[in-house]
Amino acid sequence: MDTAAAAPTFKTVNVLASSATRRLTNPTAITPSWPSTRPHMLALYVCNPNPRNNVHFLTRCSSKPDVDSENATTKSPTVEPDSNSKTQQLSTPPPNQKPSSSSSSRGLVFDLGTKNSWDSAEIGSPVVKRYLSDDEERWYMWYHGSSDANPTSDSIGLAVSSNGVHWERGTGLVRSSGEAGLVMNCSMDWWAFDTESIRPSEVVVMSSSKVRASSAVYWLYYTGFSSEKVELSGSLKLPLENPERTYHGGTDRIFKSLPGLAISQDGRHWARIEGEHHTGALFDLGSGKEWDSLFASAPRVVYHGTGDLRMYYHSFDAECGHFALGIARSRDGIKWVKLGKIIGGGPDGSFDEFGAANAHVVRNRKNGEYVMVYEGVAADGQRSIGLAVSPDGLKDWKKCQDEAILKPSAEDAWDNKGVGSPFLVQMDGDADEWRLYYSGMGEGGRTGIGMVVSEGGDIRSFRRWSDWIFLLSNKLRILHPLHGKTVKKLKALDTLKISKREVENQLEITQMESGRRLLR
């Protein structure tokens, strides 16, 4: 991979860290640690491959996101995820116009924020991570949101959970490391690529020689949108938008977008890292009639090994008339080399005839193959979720089946108009299970974030999550009959705070016989 011809300058970023530093030759993905003491401030040096007039730019990870060095506070917020906030209470507020019935909300795990909150108009782009320690598990979900006051400008927020199902959120700006809520706004620099909207794509926890710190930090890869419109010659079969708007949107509004990077030590206070492009983006668009000459969106990054990171992103191939997915590689996570397009449109009449977008790729821990879930666009514009696999994650991507693995729900459901932006989580331990988080759209363009669970280890078959299934399996520690496996009761019912009648009332009619056998 090519290296920069000129010696790079260094960009100083103040982040939270302990006194010792560690340097690694290449990026290394590790599990984040959770310090129990208040850390010290440490100057964290990041190689800047694109010096702007040879000036050193100073940015701070402060208690207020997106403030410049003159306004940044020197007070060190704690990085303990469990610390109690004094300025903003974590809560699960009643959503804005929540769907009325349980059947219509099946699969929904995260609804719009309350009125006047930062995410009251639209939410989506879930990036979900599960972190395990000796005594507990923590779930973080970064997502984009917009408010009713400014519905066409997206920001990035964080929600937290102990089980990945029930989430706590904040209504405003995060000011300490024990809070959830708004964590990153659009850039205020006129020359930047992300002045209009930002959406999260992937979070990787790594240590790198380009980032000197005592422990690994969060690397947030995101899409930044500017006010520059993209002109598309010729006519299209469907209206094209970038970013795609489900609420207060318009048609044929294509804004330029590029991939960006920010780093953090607590997942809440972020410092942007300037890439090679003059706008601060990681790389530029393709030239002329190349497949990615219009925009580059949803940069999903996978750590393959030491000095080998892969980025999957999408654009609209104007020459072929469909969305397409491409790949780039990097040794350090900052400088990237494009390798070209890997997936385009499907056959006539298929769920992805108009192309593939918003892909998420993970490496299966059981067999080592790469699994991709992606948003398929049909000829009528409907969005569904498809599945593909590859032995090495670079080429030979093969779609697993002709049909989508997840389609929009029935007419009265919250996600009956479209599903997309999928994000896979492979569960650890004894649970042979995958979770798939996704963005859903319903009547009137209303959005939410949903979750489906695999039928055991079969990643080609998913069912929408239901609260009572989670409650029963959690309290009884059983494998539900829907998994098609033997159901075992590990504790006597009289030691649990749930009765036989409660179980029978919760089980669906089709599962009643299995439920009765369980309780005998």
Task: Tell me about this structure.
With 520 residues, the chain is mainly β. Among the domains are: 108-407, Glycosyl hydrolase domain, family 43 (Tachylectin-2, Chain A), CATH 2.115.10.20; 475-519, no CATH class. It is 5% helix and 37% strand. It has helices at 467-476, 500-506, 512-519, and strands at 9-17, 28-29, 40-48, 58-60, 108-110, 122-132, 137-146, 155-161, 167-168, 181-184, 197-207, 217-229, 255-264, 271-273, 297-305, 308-317, 322-330, 336-343, 356-363, 370-377, 383-390, 398-399, 418-426, 434-441, 447-455, 458-464. Strands 2-11-12-13-14 form a 5-stranded antiparallel beta sheet, with no helix packed on it. Strands 5, 23, 24, 25 and 26 form a 5-stranded antiparallel beta sheet that branches. Strands 6, 7, 8, 9 and 10 form a 5-stranded antiparallel beta sheet that branches. Strand 20 and strand 21 (383-390) form a beta hairpin. The chain starts with 8 loop residues before the first strand and ends with a helix.
> Are there runs of 5+ residues with pLDDT below 50, and where?
1-25, 30-49, 51-89, 476-500
Rg, Cα atoms, Å? 23 Å
| Order of the strands making up the biggest sheet | 2-11-12-13-14
Largest sheet: 5 strands, antiparallel
Strand content: 35-45%
- The CATH architecture of the domain at 108-407 comes to 5 Propeller
Helix and strand pattern:
EEEEEEEEEEEEEEEEEEEEEEEEEEHHH
CATH topology of the domain at 108-407: Tachylectin-2, Chain A
Distance between the termini: 64 Å
What's the shape?
globular
H/I helix tally: 3
**SS-based class:** mainly beta
**CATH class placement of the domain at 108-407:** Mainly Beta
CATH superfamily of the domain at 108-407: Glycosyl hydrolase domain, family 43
Mean pLDDT: 76
Number of strands: 26
Helicity, as a percent range = under 10%
Oligomer: single chain
Region (Disordered): 62-106
Biased composition (Polar residues): 70-91
